[in-house]
Amino acid sequence: RPCRALPLTCRVERTFTAIKPDAVNRGLIGEIITRFERKGYKLVGLKLVRPTQPLAETHYAELASKPFYPSLVQFLCSGPVVAMCWEGKDVVRTARKMLGATNPLESDPSTIRGAYAIDVGRNVVHSSDAVSTAEREIALWFRPEELVEWAPTSLQWIYE
Ligand code: UDP
Description:
It contains 7 helices and 4 strands, in the order βααβααβααβα. By secondary structure, the chain is of the alpha+beta class. Bound molecules: uridine-5'-diphosphate.
C-alpha cells in the first residue's frame, strides 16, 4: 500500500533483515542497526523474537534438502533474534551488499559479515535475497499491524 504522505522514492521496497542469535549474544545489535540507519534506510518493523522450530524451518524451507539445514534451524532457535523490516530505494539488493558474502571469510571486510564474522554458520545477519522472498519473510515474521507507516524528517536529505 503506497503511503501518499511520502515521496515515491522512499516507499518503493521493503526487506526482511534479522540479527541472528550469535550477534545478539555478542552484543552486536547496535552496530548492525546503526549501519542501516546511517545508510538512510527507514526502520518500519523491529522486535526481539525467540524463534520456534516451525518458524525457523519455514524461514529456511528452501534449504531443507541441504546437509546443514538441521543445524541451521537449531542455531536460529538457540537464542533471541532481532527481526527487522527496512524500507527504501533498492533496499533488498543493497542490504545484501551491506551484509557481504554468505561465507564471512569471502566477505569484503567493509561489510557486516566481513567485519564481524568468521564461520559461515555464525555469520551474524540475514537479509532477504529477492523482493519476492522479502514479501514472504516479512509476512512470516510480522503481523501487518507491527509494521509502522511513518515519515522521517530526514527523507528530503536522503532522497532527491
Ligand atoms: N549456511 C551454512 N553452511 C553453508 C551454507 C549456509 O551454515 O554451507 C547457513 C549460513 O548461516 C547462511 C544460511 O545458512 O546465512 C542461509 O544460507 P543461504 O545460502 O540462504 O545464504 P544467505 O542468503 O544467508 O547469504
